[in-house]
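Researcher: Next entry: Aminoglycoside phosphotransferase domain-containing protein (Botryotinia fuckeliana).
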Amino acid sequence: MYEAGTRGVWSIGEEYLLKELAIEEEIWGEQSWLGPEYAITRFLEANSKIPVVKYVKHWTDSESHFFFMKRIPGESLYNMFYDGITRADLLVLAEEAADYLVELRSFTSDKLEAPGGDPVRDKKFNPQHPPHFWTSDVDKWWAGVEPHIKDKSKKGILKEKYGLCVKPEGPFVLSHGDLNAQNIIVKDNHISGIIDWERGGYLPVWWEWRQLTRVQMSGWGNAVIEALGRRNALPSEEEMTLWKSFYNIFYDAYEDKTGVHRNPKWKTNDREFYWTQPSYPHYRAEEKPWDCEDIAKRNREGIEKIEAEKKAIEDRIKTAEDRAKVAEEKLAENETIVAEFNKLSVEERENLKRRK
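Model: Predicted structure:
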C-alpha cells in the first residue's frame, strides 16, 4: 500500500494488513523499542470502546518488527474531503471523535510513558538526531536541547516554563497526538477506526489540544476542539497560556537544523525525512533515487523513449503519405480513363460493351 522511511504497509487480501517497522539499533541503542503505537492499541482494544486495529500477530526478525492486523472497514476522512463531505456530516464525526477523546483522557499516569511503561519519543521539544524521549525532568530535558539553543541567556526562563508545562508530578493523560483526517477511518458516516498512534502516550493534559490546533484541513481540528469544549474536556486557560508562552520563547531561541546532520546510515522515522526520501533503500535497495549517476541514466532513458516515439510517429506519417500518393496516382489514372471514355461516340461505347 505504501512505504515511508523505515515503515511499509502491505495489503494481504481484503481483510488484513502487514506493517513492517525497521529495527534502528544504530539510532536507538537497543532493538526492543517499538514506539508506543503497538502498546497503546493493544491497551485500548482491551480496555476501551475506542475503535482501533486488531492485531493478529506480532513478531521480530533480525532487521524488522512485523505487525499482522485486521483491516478497519471504511475510508479515511482525508479522502472524504475530496469526495465532498458535507459540513453536517463533518460535525457528526467531530462529536464522535470528541467522545472517544474523552474516554481516552480518562486513562492517566504519573509518568510520561506509553501503556506498559515504554518511553515516548519527544519530537517537539528535543533535537531529532539523536532522538530523545519525553521527560518531566527539567535538567535532563535541558541537557538534550541546550546544544541547539542559540540564545543561552534564555536558559533560566526556558527551564522554568518547561517545568510549569510538563509538571513532574503529572497527571498525564493518554493522548493520540496526531488526530489528522488521514488517521480517522469512516464507514457509513461514522468513525470505524482511529489509526497511527505512534505519537501517542501519557502526555501533558494540553498536548492533544495543542496538536488539534495544527489540524486545519476543512476545519476538522477546530470542529473537534469545539466538541471537546462542549464536554468540558479542554485544558484550562492557565494551561493553554503557559504552553503558548513557553512555545514562543522556545522556538525563538531554538536553532532550526531541519535537514542538517543527516547520517546516511540512519533509516530515521522523522516525517520530513519521509517527504524528502520516500523511497529509502531499506525497501528499494536496487533503486538509488538520489544517486546522480542513476538520475542521469533515467534522463537518458527518458530522452531515448521520446526519440523512439517521435520516430514511430514520423514512420506512420511517411506511410500515410505514401498511401496517399498511390491513391492520387490511381485517381489520376481513373480520371484519364473516364475522360477517354467520354470522347467515344455512342456507337463506340456500345461496341465496347458487346466486347465485354
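Model: Note for the record: Residues 309-355 form one domain.
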